[in-house]
Input
Amino acid sequence: MKEYPMNLLEFEKEFATEEQCREYLYQLRWPEGYYCPRCRCKEAWKISNEKYKCKNCGYQTSVISGTIFQDTHKPLTLWFRAIWYVTSQKNGTSALGLQGILGLGSYHTAWLWLHKLRRAMISPDRDKLHGTVEVDETYIGAPDTGGKRGRGAGNKALVAIAVEINDQKIGRIRMSVIDDASSKSLHPFIESSVEIGSTIVSDGWNGYCGLSEKGFAQAIQKPKANDNDSLLPHVHTVISLLKRWLLGTLQGSCSKDHLSYYLDEYCFRFNRRKSKSRGMLFYRLLQNAVRLQPSSYKDIIAK
Ligand SMILES: [Zn+2]
Output
């Protein structure tokens, strides 16, 4: 199968009907053909347009069960349009924007869909960063009051950022909300984002001490006299781009509770910024969407 549409015209042609959307999901979910999620048997009766019944154990499944589309009352054609819209907007989109473009009756539905899609922006088996990686933290959510490092205050959230450096240029990035700037918070972020053996470039903050015992090489940058700007230039560029994006796309209305999903969206877009085809992003998002456990409204607001 052709992996993804190259432009809007192709998209409209390839995903005009429920059947076309279902078939696409089927190929993404079972590229080697259907198998039972319970007993792995490869034979099934097709009992409706979308339902399959395992010939071995009788378990019933559909192409959307166990994916982010499970229990949806809306057509897949509408979902696919939402995904095309979200991935073709270079700088992201707001719930209001999505509601308008799809003609959804409720803002709430648009908001919920966007959150479900943000969850599908992170691939469950993505590769870690490697090579030389700059790491720093920043506060998001309120004006910088110059509070002490490591002490999250009020509505501010502390975010750790890792930036891969290839030939002096910014490569892929990772971000995560962390509790504080202690080594107890920073080390797990680095270990989950960066391959062992890589070089971690940071400032001299003591939260970064002890990484060499965990298999990383360390390069600590010290500020030249009164010139903090020359420190960690790559990660600082990414931090200012992130802050601008949060202000622009979300008009700054990003609650601390959902910040980690906005960060996922930012990383998804940033790491694919050089991708020529927006169709590629559409494909990646759908690929993750069929592999993710469904999340309900309750799950999403419970965060
Ligand atoms: Zn079975």
User: Anything to note?
Assistant: The two ends are 37 Å apart (CA to CA). The longest helix spans residues 233-249. The longest strand covers residues 157-166.
